[in-house]
Amino acid sequence: MRVERKIKNFIKSLKVCTLATCKNNRPRASTVNYVSEGFTLYIRTSRKSTKVRNIKANPRVSVAIDDCGKTRLCIQAEGIARILGKEEAEKVVNRYFKKGRKHKKELVDTIIRIDLKRIMFSDYTTKKLKVYKFKVKNNRLLLTSIKVI
Fold it and tell me: What pTM was estimated for this model as a whole?
């Protein structure tokens, strides 16, 4: 599917997203760096961060990915987040995160994995806005609706 490839490439081409978490009906939006593999995002953060505490209480998250209008594409997504254990986190760090960058260890001691479950992809590149809605199953997109505005 052409749109699926376009979405994967868009996610992979960017490195920053807004991650929304919630605990006790108190939402929190955080701008974070990420790396992706298909429709899975990995975020490196501190285990003491509010986002980690919120995910432990409520693993349902929302993610917004855009490039400030450069391509006229954007994504709103829902997903399930989990904090990776030490062994799995080390594999992710070794595979995806550059070693040259120095951070204080306590600022990047935790990896969050987000498996995207629903994606709304807005494409403003044509004369009319196209909004695609998908469910993610087995790292593939299942189209649920298309709206042309």
Answer: 0.91
